[in-house]
Specification:
mainly alpha, globular
């Protein structure tokens, strides 16, 4: 299998509000309060237990050597998530990279089923709303931490504390805060320099 696509293929556009609605609906199913983290790995394990009766699964744990170029991947036809064993163990221990990666791949499984996903060279320019990786990152954050909690508490707690509490890598949170700002989630941008809620 080729590691990189020879030309860019954009996934169908999804804006932040559409992604948020998907993630929020899953949080609502569990009746999570705004300050509760979504237990992604536990949910996937529960789904696997139920699917096992039909000899099916939503995720597999594979040896690290079986995924030489990624910590995890998702089959866009079936939605099957494959996790390196080291990534799975990281998520089980509540480490940020593992928790976030599992949630990110769950985003691919939900948002991109039936859509061919490609990995791109760094110099390929894809509009944000058509970028599967940005969509999956946004989904993971919106799933792990309630949008309501984030908007209400970001300035008071700061991104570092929120990242610790909800197991999100800081660099991913900073990128997401910028997307939220562009989306108008913090109100209208004043004509002078906007003060980040950081």
């Amino acid at each position: 299998m080729d590691r990189f696509s020879p030309k860019p293929i954009f996934v169908p556009a999804k804006n932040l509000n559409e992604i948020r609605e998907l993630a929020s609906s899953l949080r609502d199913v569990l009746r999570l309060k705004s300050g509760q983290a979504f237990p992604t790995l536990r949910i996937l394990e529960t789904i696997n237990d139920r699917l096992a009766e039909d000899d099916k699964e939503i995720f597999q744990v594979v040896e690290d050597d079986d995924l030489p170029y990624a910590f995890a991947d998702t089959d866009s036809v079936t939605g099957l998530i494959r996790l390196r064993n080291s990534c799975y163990q990281s998520a089980r221990h509540g480490e940020k990279e593992g928790v976030f990666t599992v949630s990110h791949e769950y985003g691919h499984s939900i948002c991109h089923r039936g859509v061919k996903l490609h990995r791109f060279e760094d110099d390929v320019d894809i509009p944000e709303e058509n970028d599967s990786e940005i969509q999956a990152d946004s989904f993971a954050i919106e799933l792990l931490v309630s949008h309501v909690f984030l908007v209400k508490n970001l300035k008071r707690l700061g991104p570092e504390a929120i990242c610790e509490r909800f197991r999100i890598p800081l660099n991913k949170m900073i990128e997401h805060i910028e997307r939220m700002r562009r989306n108008g989630d913090f109100g209208p941008r004043p004509s002078s320099q906007l003060e980040l809620p950081l």
